[in-house]
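Example 3.2
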Amino acid sequence: LGAKGFLGFARYDAAVFSTRVTDELVPFEIPNSNGRRYFRNAGRTRRNGAEAGIDASRGPLSVMATYSYSAFRFVSYSTGGVVYDGNTIPGVPKHHWQTALKFSNRAGFAVLEEEGATSVLLDDANSASGPGYSVANFRIGTAAFPRNPRVSLSAGMQNLFDRHYASSIAVNAAKGKFFEPAATRNVFVGVSVASGKM
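Structure, written as tokens:
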């Protein structure tokens, strides 16, 4: 169930959802299997959540923000004599958000972005959790050059404040190897060249 529209100079969208799944696939690892992933079926799961976003522009400035709320649970799930009924489905943070502030004109653009999430559970038993994170990125770029409109430049810095966090999670990993670390602070430079008729 959702809605979208305009409020003055801002565009918005929002939605709530609820799903029920039977025999959902759940990944897991077996110790000493060299990281090989296997799957088993959870009896029944329930996923309730909400998402919202807004995008507003005024003159050279624009602002974007998105947010998602996830309440995902096992309704009926047992394996190896262990019952996980009522546990949170691992691998998905309850709260996740993204924001961006952009300034642009005829010369080019500059963008400051931020992404964050709360802590995340790592296994079906909910016995381990990973910390939340907040990471910022910065990008700048030129508009097409007047003498050569096919060419534009861009540069940026990812992980601006050099945060240490996991970019993805291996759910139910063997021997506690749940985390796949993200890159530390890094810089990139790019050149775009258009093809075809201008």
